[in-house]
Design goal:
305 residues, alpha/beta, TIM Barrel, six-stranded parallel sheet, two-stranded antiparallel ribbon, 8 strands, globular
């Protein structure tokens, strides 16, 4: 899965960076990416704006034969990603198999990525948990480990209770306490729960909630959210190559449309798509069809069995 920003509304919102994040960079925990993420237009102290334009492949988590996280293989994979002009990476998203990792493992993966990520690349880390308290704590740890933003999935175990009021309260509490920007994550195929548009519109008004990654594929819903959040500098991200082209068409008249963030295994092809989509609709449509053919979830590790 790749993620790509489809819509831009004037300037992205101001965001805060944690002192702990800066400390991690200074201590070497952030490696080359500590200050480098700021070089991508993503980070820096006081008043720097977070711009999500570009493609962010959500990376998989490699495991050893003993089912431990294989950090060496992860670093090798990151070297390959570094050769492709992505804006950054999504770490500990659905493709990272985060439900099968402990919180400590999730944070260690982010630390490894931060150390290995080239300067100028943005790191978006999944920090969603079932409880608000656990999400707040993990978000703090992800920021300290070097994340430039966090991707927070909808809690779903008690989905019958997850109405708009409950979800607004959950995400607001997380965003209030987070030192890095929050990106909402709606992936109903995995959670069985879709983040209601009315909740997204309310949450878009929060100064520390900068966007939504929508992996549901309901183009009418996406278009409605884009329309209703025009005034908030809210950034909508397409979560699947299966509806990438259709999602572009929702906002085809925007002068500021930036490019894709699809979920797909064809990383290099997707990077090319972002450039091609500015050239011609017909050619873009053909490439979009190619992406649909490879838009499958990767084979899960043995931890899933």
């Amino acid at each position: 899965m790749l993620c790509a920003r489809l819509w831009t509304r004037s300037a992205p919102l101001l965001w805060r960076r944690a002192q702990s994040h800066a400390a991690a960079a200074g201590a070497g925990g952030a490696g080359a990416g500590g200050a480098g993420a700021g070089g991508a237009g993503a980070g820096g102290a006081g008043g720097t704006r977070l711009d999500l334009s570009g493609i962010y492949p959500p990376i998989a988590t490699p495991f050893t034969a003993e089912e431990d996280v294989d950090h060496r293989r992860l670093e090798e994979n990151l070297q390959k990603y570094a050769k492709i002009p992505f804006k950054g990476l999504v770490v500990q998203g659905s493709n990272g198999e985060y439900p099968y990792l402990t919180q400590e493992e999730r944070v260690e993966v982010v630390r490894t990525v931060r150390r290995s990520l080239p300067a100028g690349k943005l790191l978006m880390a999944g920090s969603g948990c079932e409880s608000t308290r656990a999400t707040v704590r993990l978000t703090e740890e992800m920021a300290a480990a070097g994340a430039d933003a966090v991707l927070v999935v909808t809690p779903c175990f008690y989905k019958g209770k997850m109405d708009s009021r409950a979800l607004i309260q959950h995400f607001t509490t997380v965003a209030d306490s987070s030192a890095v920007p929050v990106v909402l994550y709606s992936v109903p195929a995995n959670t069985g729960l879709e983040l209601p548009p009315e909740a997204v519109v309310r949450l878009a008004q929060h100064p520390n909630i900068v966007g939504l990654k929508d992996s549901g594929g309901d183009i009418t819903r996406i278009g409605l959210i884009v329309h209703q959040t025009e005034a908030q500098d809210f950034q909508v991200l397409a979560g699947s190559a299966g509806f990438l082209m259709a999602a572009y068409c929702v906002d085809s008249h925007s002068q500021n449309s930036q490019g894709p963030r699809p979920d797909s295994g064809s990383l290099a092809t997707s990077a090319c798509t972002r450039r091609t989509l500015r050239v011609g609709v017909k050619q873009s449509w053909l490439i979009s069809l190619d992406l649909c053919a490879v838009d499958d979830q990767p084979e899960l590790s043995s931890r899933s069995t």
